[in-house]
Design goal:
heterodimer, A: 13 helices, B: about 400 residues, alpha/beta, FAD/NAD(P)-binding domain, about 20% helix
Chain lengths: ~500, ~400
């Protein structure tokens, strides 16, 4: 199979974690693949707005794809992160009971996990909870040593970059407007950036997967946006917990409750909330939920106060069940029964991060059943990320500065990010050029001053690198311009 | 490891004044370390005038004010590093500096903390709503406009009436932007009266007290904010929400002393000021580490930053001569009416300048220093305002033989 101009064997709609994982999985074969992403970068939807927890798989009902893929994904996650040079920490996790009645639920969770094939689950008592987490209040807990954390956006970026290196084409700022079938049975996909044709369409459009499916002619799916808000805490309180701390929630609920999660960078996240909303793009944070999050977190960890919050944000889950029903709907990963070669991925909410690779393999299986895919002998599973100066030993730091003096210029003071790292992020292989793209790749602007010191410096580096005019600098692509031009007396000069 | 008599961290107003004062005290082995490309720090972007009235008895712009010190530093050849970030400070008074030339350890007999402060952000005050572009802290906007010649927006709402925000209102208007209003959460302004007059009143810009931003709209660029009036307990008064179309929200909601290095070194901080706890010589909980300027407490007038740096140099000189000894340890107790007092402890009975901020605005107040039941000093204050730092000097004779010290405002 061979690509001609704008014809691909497979077009993946959506550059989230799952779309990028599918792209990478397909790049193991001799097949031409394009990813169409409506935003200025990959990962900007639900993929970058979650807890970053690599779940062990005890929260999902036995026999479901969620359970199967979560457990599989968990077991191969360390290897994936190693190949892609993405941070991964196996910290374990506690589900903490605060009341006696909740201990039953812990036991149910453990049984469910055992049935799913999760390793090493154990119920621990008060003294063991205190030994593991001295600052946490609780009477018992389910301890899951297999749970880990990662960086969801770095992983998505890494999957995309590795796919790109292995021949996949990425089209950013490319919004699908219509999908039709040509006489030769190829799909014709019209976007704001021109036409594409393909033999397969893989619909991994996340929250909008129902809309994309409708474009192609199937009304079968409906997705309800369910927002989760988070707080990020100052690193000064990071030492208060050593692993994710979850409350006990009703076993029938898909929501895992407001939890405290260390991030890979050493902050603590509080969240998420669980609120059905009308609009799929309303990523607001709300005052009532912000207060609720702080209060719930305080129940477990009395030492934290709202004053430690450095930022609040939200993500939106793609729920298949309306709020009136709630409950549990499994992942849908299937070829459309109405449209040949149109593969839908619907309702990939938690544990979608953990399950991303098994989900991607399932998509490959679906295609492989229809026609035998030949492996790509050039496929290279490895990819290097941006070296973090601050994480190196002193000898290495000295050597790095000698090698490239840009390592000696610390641009972001809070997170100690050097100019070299900023330049590498700016010159990323996907060609993403907004401030947020640099932030996700380097951590610059993510610290307690939120870019107060480094934002203007990064804007200048970005401008110089691409010779951009002031109006061309954006926070996150499209119409998110940062400046309205030069100041008036400068223009009149 | 290179050893210095004195290392000063930060080349802004405080660090410059400390370096000059050091040299004038006869200390020769100084190293001033600045992370930016120029000395002067934030003064460089403060192109308005009004600096130096107290210190130089003339009105200077920020860069002019800084230049007086920079000229002195260059003339006396006081060593300084630019583009150099101190990434670590230890209780043993070692610092690690990273710059284009490499990574260097220094040790000093005295370290002077002069890192200044940073701006409080949207995240820290939890403003609800969307997260579009077009939300800037006042200082970032000031840098973009004054140092980079960019415009940050055309139709602007300002939240918070801190001084930088007020200065930026005038600046934006002079550059042709429309400033719709300044909303202030508190029932009184956080800025200096002269800035309210010169930056708002002179341009007919409304200051809405007891108002805050309760929602932000915009997917790409900011498209509007919702403001609402707050009741006496801080809750939103029903029916007072209104939407305002704008493309920029400027935040001037407070400054926070930049003490990450201090914290990592284990220096004890004051929860209210955000700066180190110090004795009357500006010495922190680690002997030989001193602090001055905005890293110690946020000032409203740069002249006071310079004066504070000069003041603590007395202690630095004594320390270097081995004469700064702890004769006593009296904790300064904060009584009614005051938010904080610096210094937090007295280790001797020398002349001491106390700095305060009051809790709320008031008139005809009396500041009282007392040792138990004994009143040591009283000072009448015609008008007090949380925006204005109060500085009062007590002489060694007044402080002689005190056992305790409490300060209050009645």
């Amino acid at each position: 199979m061979k690509a001609t101009k704008n014809h691909y064997d497979a077009v993946i709609i959506g550059g989230g974690m799952v779309g990028c994982a599918i792209a990478r999985e397909l790049s193991r074969y001799k097949i031409s693949v394009a990813v169409l992403e409506k935003e200025d970068d990959v990962s900007w939807g639900t993929s970058c707005r979650n807890s970053g927890v690599v779940h062990a798989g005890f929260n999902n009902r036995p026999g479901t794809l969620m359970a199967k893929f979560c457990v599989e994904g968990n077991k191969s996650f360390a290897e994936l992160c190693l190949q892609l040079d993405v941070p991964y920490k196996k910290m374990g996790k506690l589900v903490v009971a605060k009341k006696k009645e909740e201990i039953k639920d812990l036991q149910k969770l453990k049984q469910q996990g055992d049935a799913n094939g999760v390793d090493n689950l154990q119920i621990i008592d008060y003294s063991e909870v205190k030994r593991l987490e001295p600052n946490i209040e609780g009477i018992a807990a389910l301890y899951s040593p297999e749970t880990a954390i990662t960086s969801p956006y770095l992983l998505t970026i890494a999957l995309a970059e590795n796919a790109l290196n292995n021949g996949v084409s990425f089209f950013l700022n490319t919004r699908v407007e219509s999908i039709t079938r040509l006489n030769n049975s190829h799909f014709k996909i019209i976007t704001n950036r021109g036409e594409f044709t393909s033999s397969y369409v893989i619909n991994s459009a996340g929250l909008y997967a129902d809309k994309i499916a409708r474009m192609a002619g199937t009304e079968k799916y409906h997705l309800y946006p369910c927002r989760g808000e988070y707080h990020i805490l100052d690193k000064n309180v990071s030492r208060l917990i050593s692993r994710p701390i979850y409350p006990v929630t009703s076993p029938s609920s898909q929501w895992l409750g407001v939890h405290l999660t260390p991030t890979i960078d050493g902050n603590i996240l509080i969240g998420p909330s669980n609120e059905y909303i009308k609009s799929k793009d309303n990523l607001s944070v709300t005052s009532s939920v912000m207060k609720m999050l702080s209060a719930e977190a305080g129940e477990f960890l009395p030492l934290i106060s709202p004053g430690y919050t450095i930022r609040s944000y939200s993500g939106i889950r793609a729920k298949q069940s309306p709020s009136s029903e709630g409950g549990f709907w499994d992942f849908v990963i299937e070829e459309s029964d109405m449209i040949d070669n149109f593969i839908n991925l619907i309702g990939i909410e938690s544990p979608g991060l953990t399950a991303a690779q098994p989900i991607a393999k399932r998509v490959v299986e679906i295609i492989n059943k229809k026609e035998r895919l030949n492996s790509n002998p050039q496929f290279n599973p490895f990819r290097k990320g941006i070296l973090r100066f601050d994480e190196q030993g002193e000898e290495t730091k000295i050597a790095l500065i000698r090698q490239d003096p840009n390592y000696g210029e610390i641009v972001c003071r809070c997170e100690k990010v050097t100019k070299k790292e900023i330049l590498e992020a700016i010159n990323n292989p996907l060609g993403a050029r907004s401030l947020i793209s640099i932030k996700y790749r380097t951590r610059a602007m993510m610290g307690r001053c939120q870019g107060g010191y480094c934002q203007t410096r990064i804007m200048e580096i970005l401008r110089e690198s691409f010779k951009l005019g002031p109006k061309e600098l954006t926070l996150k692509g499209n119409d998110s311009y940062l400046l309205t031009g030069y100041r008036s007396s400068e223009v009149s000069k | 490891m290179p050893e210095k008599e004195v290392i000063i961290i930060g080349g802004g107003a405080a660090g410059l004044a400390a370096a000059v004062a050091c040299q004038q005290k006869g200390v020769e082995d100084i190293l001033l370390i600045e992370r930016g490309a120029y000395l002067g720090g934030i003064l460089n972007q403060c192109i308005h005038d009004g600096f130096g009235l107290e210190k130089f008895h003339t009105s200077l712009s920020g860069p002019e004010y800084a230049q007086r010190y920079v000229d002195h530093i260059k003339e006396k050849e006081i060593p300084f590093l630019l583009n150099s970030m101190v990434v670590n400070l230890t209780p043993q008074k070692e610092v690690i500096v990273v710059n284009n030339n490499g990574l260097t350890h220094y040790r000093a007999r005295v370290i002077i903390l002069a890192m200044g402060c940073r701006e409080r952000t949207r995240g820290a005050i939890s403003i609800p709503g969307a997260r579009p572009s077009g939300i800037y802290t006042a200082g970032v906007a000031q840098e973009l406009i004054n140092l980079k010649n960019y415009m940050v927006g055309q139709k602007i709402v300002v939240l918070g009436s801190g001084d930088v925000g007020l200065i930026m209102v005038r600046r934006l208007i002079l550059e042709g932007a429309e400033v719709i209003m300044v909303a202030e959460k508190l029932p009184y302004s956080s800025g200096l009266p002269r800035n309210i007059n010169q930056c708002l009143n002179d341009f007919d810009i409304p200051l809405l007290l007891s108002h805050t931003v309760v929602d932000i709209e915009g997917n790409g660029r900011l498209s509007g904010v919702t403001i609402a009036q707050l009741g006496p307990r801080g809750g939103i008064i029903p029916g007072t929400r209104r939407k305002i179309a704008c493309d920029t929200l400027l935040l001037s909601v407070g400054l926070i002393p930049e003490n990450e290095l201090s914290r990592e070194a284990g220096i004890v901080l004051d929860n209210i000021t955000g700066g180190p706890q110090v004795d009357e010589r500006g010495q922190t909980s680690i002997p030989g580490i001193f602090a001055c300027g905005n890293v110690l407490q946020v000032h409203d007038i740069v002249d006071n930053v310079s004066l504070e740096a000069e003041y603590i140099l007395e202690g630095v000189a004594e320390y270097l001569e081995g004469k700064l000894s702890q004769e006593q340890e009296i904790k300064v107790e904060i009584g009614e009416g005051l938010r904080y007092v610096v210094p937090q402890t007295l280790i001797s009975q020398k002349d001491t300048i106390f700095s305060f901020r009051v809790n709320q605005p008031g008139e005809k107040k009396i500041l009282i220093f007392e040792d138990g039941k004994k009143v040591i000093k009283k000072k009448s204050l015609r008008r007090v305002n949380p925006a204005e730092m109060v500085r009062v000097k007590l002489s060694s004779s007044e402080l002689e033989e005190i056992k305790t010290l409490k300060v209050k405002l009645v």
